[in-house]
């Protein structure tokens, strides 16, 4: 059937007029449009279901990875935990100076010992405060110094004593007591 035809003959033998042809063409476009929308809906549904499936797989993998990380962190925490005691010696403290990654890092302030292993980045072998650990850092903290040779040995003045108390409070509230 040609769209330009005035009159055509339908395969059934019925005569088809111009209006019939217009309706047929409109119906064809409508059918194509409906088919296109159905295809789009099908593709959209497939994409949506695929996205949901991938998101669920990612969620499961993340859960497994998080559990593994928690387990490693707990194992590390247990390995780095030291029981509280009051009889630390200078020699014993020196073993925990941050150079051995398999040992905790300890700092002593006025006879109180704190485990600072959680901040290995600060107190470990390459940390900026590595000179304070593995020993009694009382005077260094009070004098705001990282070097033993900068301490003049004079009794601590009121400002230094107050500074020392602030440091003790900081360590008490931030790190584990040993």
What does this 3D model show about the protein?
- The chain has 178 residues and is mainly alpha-helical.
- It contains 5 helices and 5 strands.
- It has helices at residues 18-80, 90-94, 120-123, 138-143, 158-174; strands spanning 7-9, 15-17, 106-109, 112-115, 176-177.
- The strands form 2 sheets. Strands 3-4-5 form a 3-stranded antiparallel sheet. It has a two-stranded antiparallel sheet with strand order 1-2.
- Strand 3 (106-109) and strand 4 (112-115) form a beta hairpin.
- The termini are far apart.
What's the structural blueprint in terms of helices and strands?
Elements lengths: L6 E3 L5 E3 H63 L9 H5 L11 E4 L2 E4 L4 H4 L14 H6 L14 H17 L1 E2 L1
Antiparallel strand pairs: 1-2, 3-4, 4-5
């Amino acid at each position: 059937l040609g769209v330009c035809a005035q009159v055509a003959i339908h395969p059934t033998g019925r005569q088809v007029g111009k209006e019939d042809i217009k309706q047929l063409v409109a119906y064809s476009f409508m059918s194509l449009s409906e088919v296109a929308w159905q295809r789009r809906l099908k593709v959209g549904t497939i994409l949506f279901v695929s996205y949901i499936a991938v998101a669920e797989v990612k969620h499961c993998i993340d859960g497994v990875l998080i559990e593994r990380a928690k387990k490693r962190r707990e194992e590390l925490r247990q390995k780095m935990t030291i029981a509280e005691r009051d009889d630390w010696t200078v020699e014993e403290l020196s073993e925990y100076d941050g150079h051995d990654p398999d040992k905790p890092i300890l700092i002593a302030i006025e006879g109180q010992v704190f485990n600072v292993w959680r901040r290995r980045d600060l107190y470990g072998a390459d940390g900026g405060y590595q000179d304070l650990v593995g020993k009694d850092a009382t005077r260094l903290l009070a004098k705001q110094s990282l070097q033993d040779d900068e301490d003049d040995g004079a009794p601590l003045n009121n400002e230094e004593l107050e500074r020392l108390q602030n440091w003790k409070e900081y360590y008490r509230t931030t790190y584990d007591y040993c």
